[in-house]
Each structure stands twice: as C-alpha cells, then as structure tokens.
Amino acid sequence: QAKTQGGRRYAFFDIELRERMQRHLVLEQDLHHAAPQDQLWVAYQPIIDLRTDRTVAVEGLLRWRHPVHGTVSPGEFIPLAEESDLINSIGAHMLRMATHELAAQRQRHRVELRLNANLSPRQLEDPGLVSTVQQVLADSGLAARALCFEVTENAIMHDPSTAARVLHELRELGVSLAIDDFGTGHSSLAQLQRLPFDSLKIDRSFITNLDDSDDLRVLVTSIITMAHSLGLEVVTEGIETARQLELLRDLGSDQAQGYYLGKPTPIEELLPAHPLSCFPPRGPRLADSGPE
Ligand code: C2E
Ligand code: MG
Ligand code: MG
Ligand code: MG
Predict the structure, then answer these.
(1) Which residues, 6+ apart, have CB-to-CB distance to 153 below 8 Å?
(2) What whole-number distance in Å separates Cα of residue 43 and Cα of residue 174?
(3) Sequence-ordered strand ranges (E) for the chain
(4) Residue 245 — very low, low, confident or very high, per pLDDT cuts 50/70/90?
(5) How far apart are alpha carbons 225 and 8 in whole angstroms?
(6) Which residues contact 233 (CB under 8 A, 6 or more apart)?
(7) What is the C-alpha to C-alpha distance for residues 75 and 42, in angstroms, rounded to an integer?
(8) How confident is the model over 113-132, as pLDDT tens digits?
(9) Residue 271 and residue 154: Cα distance in Å, rounded?
(10) ipTM
(11) Of all residues in the chain, what percent are helix, strand and coil, respectively (each to 5)?
(12) Tell me, what DSSP letter sits at residue 195?
C-alpha cells in the first residue's frame, strides 16, 4: 500500500481526514449529553510516597463511555470541552463525582487518601470555580486538605494574573496545589515560586528516557534539588518500570505515579475489601516492606 500512486494516496488521506473531522464534530455534539446521560466516570491512579511506600493520594482522571465510539480518552475530549464552553460544567461534574466517591472510600476504609484533580486553563479562569469547589467540599464532606488541584504551567501562563489570584483563593480554602507536567511548558521555577504551590509533578517525558541519558538524569536531579529548595514536594509521573522507580527514589523524588505502581482504575477496584492489602502497592522492592 505504501507504493500507491500520488493521486490515490491523496484520495486516501482525504477520506481519513474527513473521518477525523466527522468524529470531531460528532464527539463535540455528543459531549453536551455526556454528563446528563451519565456517560462520564472517573478513573483513579495511585500516587505513592517513596519514603513510606504507601499510597497517599489518587489522581482522578475523567473517562467518557460513548454509546457508539466506546471509551474516549480525556486527551481527545478535554480539548473539545475547552473549545466549546462545556469544560466548566464538565469540570464541576467531575469534581462532584470524585469528591463524593473519595469521601465514601475514605470513610468506608478509614484511609487518609488525598484526591488530586486537574484544572484546565479555562477552568482556572471561570469566575464560578472557587464557589464550585466550596460547594463540592461541603456537599461531599471531604476535607479541603484532602483535595489537591493540578494545573499545568501553560494554564498559568495563559493569564498569569488571574491564575495567581485564583490559586491564592483556592489555597485559602485549604486545598493544596500542584504544578502538573512540569518541564513541558514555558515557565520557570522563578515564576512559579511566587505562586502558592505545594508540589511539582515532573512530566512523564523526562522519565521515559531516563535509563539511557546521563544528561536527562542530571536535569531531573537539578529539578528535584531546585524544587526542594523552594519547599516543593516532588512527584514523578510515568513510572513504568522497577528500574525507573529505583532511579527516581535515588534521585530524591518524594512521590511517584505510573503504570508500574498502578494504572487508573474504577473506584470499586481501587481499594479492595481488605483496605490495607493494597498498601503498600505491589512491586519487587515495595513488597519487601510488607503490610503493617
Ligand atoms: P495528566 O493530568 O498529566 O494525567 C496523567 C496522564 O498520564 C493520564 O492520562 C494517565 O493515565 C497517564 N499515565 C499515568 N501513568 C502513566 C504511565 O506510566 N505511562 C503512560 N504512558 N501514561 C501514564 P489520561 O487519563 O489519558 O489523561 C490525559 C490528560 O487529560 C491529563 O494529563 C489531564 O491533563 C487531562 N485530564 C484528565 N482528566 C481531567 C479532568 O477531570 N479535568 C481536566 N481539566 N483535565 C483532565
Ligand atoms: Mg494531572
Ligand atoms: Mg501530568
Ligand atoms: Mg499531561
């Protein structure tokens, strides 16, 4: 098929492009019904503290069960929601679901699990955000300190003064704040240092190639050192192997997240009937420490 003639290849691309545009349009339309028709759900991925080898938090990640297209990833539909003004209602819906589910799990299993939730640029600029957050905390009974918002550098740089004000307001409520995907945007630690962040998540792209790059190791080490000197906890994202986990532990990362430690799962599968059996999580070195 690679040897198809130019004309035919164009025709092929044309069909592919049209299909992609059609999918885009359909999904954008259908997204309006996603929340009302109960097609959205939250998957939870554990965040492990490397000092205790215990799950200290879960990141809530939206999923869309589309009646025709099956599971649509947030990488595809969050941008659509951002374009179409739906992001604020979908974001509020997500927060309602996640705070209620987590509050219930915390009670049922008597665990101090924090919920991390992502905020997109438009959500950060929504004048109703702070009151939405107050509302979902009050309704769910989840303590403010059990909630952490993750925002990317780009979300902050989009409108820095609004972002700064909103982040301070959120911090006032008692929630904590994390810089997400650090290293992929165009901010500096100097700029971020003025904002009330508690932790910094090093982007997965740094971790993926860590094994065979000394330069990358030096870079990650210096990010960790700088973050610590600014009083930020460091979380590394995208840990997929035991080797990466040990490396990041040695480099001084405080917490870690990734498929190796746990994939995003439905809330029912997050904590088994025996709550402590998933603390600490599986993994060769982790298994040594045994449950308490
Ligand atoms: P993120 O906040 O950086 O979330 C981490 C993403 O990396 C998730 O993808 C997660 O499944 C994936 N991931 C975690 N560990 C690994 C790993 O070891 N290897 C690999 N290859 N991937 C890993 P997901 O769930 O597809 O979410 C993508 C992005 O969509 C998120 O990136 C976040 O920016 C956005 N998103 C998800 N849920 C929400 C939400 O409720 N609200 C908003 N505003 N954005 C959301
Ligand atoms: Mg995140
Ligand atoms: Mg991230
Ligand atoms: Mg990301």
Answers:
(1) 179, 181, 182, 184, 185, 186, 187, 192
(2) 24
(3) 40-49, 54-66, 70-72, 114-118, 147-152, 176-182, 199-202, 233-236, 255-256, 265-266
(4) very high
(5) 55
(6) 198, 199, 200, 227, 254, 255
(7) 14
(8) 999 999 999 999 999 999 99
(9) 33
(10) 0.97
(11) 50, 20, 30
(12) S
Question: Which residue's CA is minimally distant from atom 10 of ligand 1?
Answer: 264
- Are 205 and 184 in contact by the 8 Å Cβ rule? The answer is yes
Residue 110 pLDDT > 50, yes or no? yes
Residue 2 has pLDDT above 60, yes or no: no
According to the model, what pLDDT value does residue 109 have? 85
Residue nearest to atom 29 of ligand 1 (CA): 75
- Of ligand 1's listed atoms, the one at least distance from the Cα of 260 is 18
Residues with CB under 6 A from ligand 1: 45, 61-62, 73-75, 78, 91, 94, 118-120, 123, 150, 180-181, 204, 238-240, 257-259, 264
Half-sphere exposure of 116 (CA within 13 A, CB side): 24
Residue 211 confidence (pLDDT) above 70 = yes
pLDDT 10s digits, 44-77: 999 999 999 999 999 999 999 999 999 999 999 9
What does the alpha-carbon distance between residue 143 and residue 133 come to, in Å, rounded to a whole number? 11
CA atoms within 13 A on the CB side of 256: 31
Taking residues 91-102, what's their average pLDDT? Answer: 98
Buried/exposed 60-74: b ≥16 CB within 10 Å, e otherwise = bbbbbeeeeeeebeb
